[in-house]
Each structure stands twice: as C-alpha cells, then as structure tokens.
Please model this.
Amino acid sequence: MYNISKIRGDFPILSRTVYGKPLVYLDNGATTQKPRCVVESITDEYYSVNANVHRGVHFLSQQATNLHEASRETVRKFINARSTSEIVFTRGTTESINLVASTFADSQMQAGDEVIVSVMEHHSNIVSWQLQAARKGIVLKVIPMNDRGELLLDEYEKLFSPRTRIVSVTHVSNVLGTINPVDRLIEIAHAHGVPILIDGAQSIPHLPVDVQALDADFYVFSGHKVYGPTGIGVLYGKESWLEKLPPYQGGGEMIKNVSFEKTTFNELPFKFEAGTPDYIGSTALAKALDYVSAIGMKNIEAYEHELTVYAMQRLKEIPGMRIFGEAEQKSSVISFLVGDIHHFDMGTLLDRLGIAVRTGHHCAEPLMHRLGIEGTVRASFALYNTKEEIDQLVAGIGRVAKMFL
Ligand code: PMP
Model:
C-alpha cells in the first residue's frame, strides 16, 4: 500500500504556499525535499552527539564515529556493495566524478588515451574529463543517441579502440529521463576490458540499484537528490580499482604516518576522505536511505512510473506541446516546450501559480545542441507528487499558453 497522504505529511515544506498558492514542487531533479526524520537527525546529532570522528578517545567522539560508520554500512546495504571499504563519502556526484577522473587519469592514462562519455551527460560528467583532457592530453569520445533520446549501442561499440581506458555514462538522463541500459553498457565495456563509471545522480532516488548485480566499477550519487542533506554524496568503487587509484586530496584522515621524508596512506575508504568528513550529513543521508527503503524502492519506482505515464499523456493533450525524451525506458523527468513560448517565460509564469519547475539547459549544453534548442522546461517528479499536481501543471501550462495566443 502506497500511503501518499502519510508520505506527504512527512515533508513539512509541501504544505507551504508561495504567492498565496499551494506549492506544487516539480523540481525534484535539481533537489528533493527532506522528510522530517532527515531534518531531525541533523538537529538531534548537533544537540546531543556532536564531536569530531575517528580521532577521539572520549565518549561523544566514539558515539559520533559509530553513527558515521553505521551510515556507511547503510549506504553499502542500500546499493548492495560488497564491503564498506568500497563506500567513499564525498560532497556529491560532482566531487565523486572529479575524484575518479583526476586519480584515474593520473594513474591509468597517457596522452592520446580515450574516455567514452555520452551525448546526454550532465556537465559534471563532461567537464571533469575535459579538465583531464587539458592536463594530460586524453581524448573524449561521445556515444550518440536517436531522436527518442536512446543511446545507440552499435555506435557505442564502435567507439572502443585499443586506447579506450574508461567509460563514464549516466544511468538516467536529468533532461530526457531516459533510463540507459546500464547493464548492457557495462557488459560491453567489460568485453573490451574497460572499466565503467555510472553517474547515479538521477537513478538512486527512483530505481533499486545493486552495484554487484550491475558489476559497475564506479557508481556515484548525491545525497540531496535522494531526500538527504546537501553537501554529502557517495563514490562506490570496486575495491580493486580504489586500491589502484592514488589519493585525491591530502590532509587528516587519509594518512597512516606522516614525516617530512615519507608519508603513507590510510586504508580504504579513508584514503579518499581527507579532512573532517561531513559526519552529520552521513547520519542524515542514512536516515534518508532508511526512509525510502521503508517505503520500498520498487514501490517508489512503480508509483513514479504511473505518475510519469499519466503526465506524458496529459501533457500531450496540450496544443503545441513538444516533449524531449520519449525513450521506451523513461524515469520521472519530463522536458518540454510549448509552441514558441520561451522556457524562461513558461517557468516564470508557472511559478506565479505556485508551480516550481526548472528551465534552461539543465547543465547539459551538448545535449541541447544535439536537440537544436537552447533550453527546456523540466518537470521532475518525486515519491510525494500526485496526479492532482500534474493536473495543476497541465492547467497552469494551458493558462500560460493562452496568454501567448
Ligand atoms: N549528474 C547528473 C545526471 C545530475 O542530474 C546532476 C545534478 N543535476 C549531477 C550529476 C551533479 O550533481 P551534484 O550537483 O549534486 O554534484
């Protein structure tokens, strides 16, 4: 049983108004709202446990350390990693990708070596690699897509060469909603002896993910997109790969012994966690993962699928509607334009009706070039959205469209 009114009651912000209208929050691809248990976890830990982790002999420090490490175990379980050594806390998806791009390029790539990305990547999975391209002379190759927004697997296969060192692709597009066939993408990469990073920023909140079943080499995501706090994210890496990569940043936590002659590094995952970690954030992230696990990722997936199918059908009834992203496998992200109405005008006017959507290029400018547009309006749904809210969106778009007639 999916108890939507109980779920909505868990998110205090959903009952606020904007411009005197009930808030219809459809910008979940950018960030999700937080359930009470996540916010309370933050205040509770600051009020009653706060102490720096790992180095303290005193009671509070040990309690904080236990909470932090228990959170790592919660993350491990959530994505079914083999060991907590494979769970690195970062600031988010962006930092996780930069960590891998930088340390992988440094240790595993030479000038002329290649990385394969896709045309639908978020800037964080393009620019992180471009920085390495500029530094090390590595080359980016790009998987194209068809007009429905599905990656072309035959073309992907053709991109592999003896110089291919890594593949880095998104699980779910933050613009098109396409759920990429990552199991196939991983299989093909491995058939060429190449490791693969999956950007899970837009999949983790919506689908069950099992990194062992997928056999992903790296899997990254942000806490704030899965009902957790901002400022914390995860890098999952197979232990064998994380062992091979050098440290990313230097500082406390990541060392074993330091002298001016020689420094040795800590074991996994601490080798990649320089400085005081966001131990308050890790506890709150674990609370968020417990929250969605209690509802059930399969239930969330099924509920959001129903919302998406309904929204696609209702939106298509609007004259002049153009939807970008009609993949067979589609998550709860819908990008669109209506007639000649500029995405910014549409977003601004919907906002006055209390409807929060995102407008612009969504940090995916190369994809906008591929689509031949500057930007879109994007509605993205979460576990707490309803068909009534979709009706309000459709009515709102209708009102805006009339103003432009
Ligand atoms: N990848 C994808 C697919 C995303 O949607 C986002 C966020 N929009 C990111 C990466 C970056 O996430 P963050 O800003 O949390 O690091």
Q: What stands out?
A: The first helix runs from residue 4 to 9. The mean pLDDT is 97. The longest strand covers residues 164-170. Residues 34 and 227 are 5 Å apart (CA to CA).
